[in-house]
Structures are given as structure tokens and as C-alpha cells.
């Protein structure tokens, strides 16, 4: 990732905040159970979104390596030596 601004100044990125960090802080602060439950739901949705993003990225990389299959083409199988 390039942290240089267009004018050559260094860009300082804020620290990455993970939902689990927020959940830990909320528990430490004594957040009421209703709000804590909503925060836990948020963490679950965040995890689902992360899983989908990782899956899609992995499928995109995989598809770059797979051969193209054209409908109507005949299957060509190389004869094995056995």
C-alpha cells in the first residue's frame, strides 16, 4: 500500500479497529446487555462480510488458473499410459 500523498507528503493511516476490540472495550466498560447484544450482532455481520470477501478473492484467484470451458466444444481426453 502506498502511503504517499500526491504532493509527496506522508499520509498517516489510523490504526485498524476490529469489531472484537470494540466488543472487548464494551464489556470492560460495563455496557448494558441490550446494547452488548446489538454489538455482538454487528460483530457477527462483520465476520460474515469478511468471510464473503475472502471467498470471493480466493475464487477470483482460482478462476485465473482454471481453463476456459466453451459450451459445445468436444471433450478431449489424453490417453493414459496404463
Top keywords for this entry?
single chain; 82 residues; mainly alpha; 2 helices
- How much strand? under 5%
Mean pLDDT: 83
Query: So how many helices?
Result: 2
Summarize the helix and strand pattern as letters.
HH
Topology, number of strands: 0
Q: Helices and strands: which structural class?
A: mainly alpha
Distance between the termini: 51 Å
Helix amount, in percent?
Answer: 40-55%
Largest sheet: none
Indicate the low-confidence ranges by residue numbers.
Answer: none
* Radius of gyration from CA coordinates: 24 Å
| Morphology | elongated
How would you sum up this structure, described in words?
- The chain contains two helices and no strands.
- The protein has helices at residues 19-28, 33-65.
Topology record:
Layout: H1 19-28, H2 33-65
Helix pairs in contact: 1-2
Question: Can you describe this structure in just a few lines?
Answer:
By secondary structure, the protein is mainly alpha-helical. It has helices at 19-28, 33-65.
Amino acid at each position: 500500500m502506498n502511503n504517499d500523498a500526491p504532493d509527496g507528503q506522508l499520509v498517516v493511516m489510523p490504526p485498524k479497529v476490529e469489531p472484537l476490540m470494540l466488543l472487548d472495550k464494551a464489556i470492560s466498560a460495563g455496557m448494558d446487555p441490550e446494547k452488548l447484544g446489538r454489538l455482538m450482532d454487528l460483530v457477527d455481520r462483520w465476520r460474515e462480510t469478511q468471510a464473503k470477501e475472502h471467498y470471493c478473492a480466493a475464487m477470483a484467484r482460482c478462476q485465473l488458473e482454471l481453463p476456459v470451458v466453451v459450451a459445445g466444444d468436444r471433450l478431449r481426453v489424453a490417453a493414459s499410459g496404463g
